[in-house]
Amino acid sequence: MGKAAAVSDQTQISYEESKELAKDSNISVRLDLARRSDVRPEILYFLAEDPSAEVRRQIASNSLTPIQADLILARDSDETVRIDLASKISALRPELDSDQREKAGRYIADVLDILAQDQTTRVRQVLADTLKDATYAPVAVIRRLAADVEDVVANPILQFSPILSDEDLLEIIDGGCASGRLCAISQRQGLGEAVADAIVSTDDRGAVTALLENKSAQIREEMLDKLVEQAPQVEVWHKPLVERPQLSPKATRRLATFVAKALLKTLERRAGLDEETAQMLEAEMTRRLKEEEGGDDDSLKRAQELHAAGKLDDETLSEALISGDRGLVRCGLAVRSKLSMDQVSEILASRSAKGVTALAWKADCSMRFAMQIQQQLGGIPPKQLVHALDNGGYPMGDEELQFQLELFQKS
């Protein structure tokens, strides 16, 4: 009891005392010693081979542990020790004199390489998450993690690592890349034109969507024009295309011919529109309004009649959606939710899974039908859908759902 108290109160202890404490049979004594910040490196090195995994974990977490001991811990039989070491790895950047740095760097590179090849996915995952923003890690280690068989390891590196060059990324894409990894690359800050071209050439819809949503990505005007031409059949691209920082007048005018009215309004608000484009957008909006007057009036009348007869239920709207009668579904949601047609159109055009779910909730739809609305009317990609609970209920509370609706009422 006395020894444990003496160690834990952080009063300075001599080298000889620490040697004795490191051999103490009481694990609490050794644990407290392993946590200390004033223990000589050779004592920490000795404790790296302690019989207790708890002690070795403390040594793995201790930023003062000598690099040579970390090399031992990188091969520890207990995966929790290796995980703790992987979590600490960013602290291993050597702050040493130039003549010491090269030798220390070799040890660190060896530790990183061992952890990058660890058989336990969690170890590699923690390492990747720790190194994803690092500017000093060995290129070979980063490339190994980027090529890992597990997405949870590779994706953070592919999305964030500044060490990966455009050449590295192009090689990864050319070698065949799963959709999730392409999406990770697509989200990189400041992604270059060559890599953006390569992503588009894969024809991976999810990756291209992520690329378009990445406003920092550099996409050539010719490539954007190409995507705009393909976009009428790909609703999920409409909003990110409309919101791209740079759009040619040609692309802007083309988008105006097929995007939803709410997105057409967004195009009209873009700064720097030339006179010809501004006039075209205004004319298109006028045409849409005139065209919708008849169609929406008819759909709205049918929705009101069905509602009065007690027949505007989920089943009726689901059948209308399947048959392609989207106007009746939109108007039905407006009637049931008591929201205006403009509000309903804005929410559906937002591509917000939570917003569309809140609209369905306001219209007293089941969560199962809300999922159908998200995907078929809201254009929400499958991976972004808000899913029903196991009991079929809404996964969001009433306050959160009301908050989502208020976001649109304020816009």
Short description:
With 411 residues, this protein is mostly helical. It is built from 26 helices and no strands.
Describe it for me?
- The longest helix is centred in the last third of the chain and has 34 residues, at 275-308.
- The chain has a domain at 295-410.
- 65% of the residues lie in helices and 0% in strands.
- It is mostly helical and 411 residues long.
By DSSP (H or I, 4+ residues per run), the number of helices equals: 26
Name the helix and strand elements from N-terminus to C-terminus, one letter apiece.
HHHHHHHHHHHHHHHHHHHHHHHHHH
Summing up helix and strand content along with how strands pair, one would put the structural category as: mainly alpha
For the record, give the distance between the C-alpha atoms at the N and C termini, rounded to a whole number.
Answer: 66 Å
What percent strand?
under 5%
Average pLDDT score: 90
Q: What is the subunit arrangement here?
A: single chain
Q: Which parts are unreliable, with pLDDT below 50 for 5 consecutive residues or more?
A: 94-98
DSSP, total strands: 0
Largest sheet: none
- Which descriptor suits the 3D outline? elongated
Give the % helix. 55-70%
Radius of gyration: 30 Å
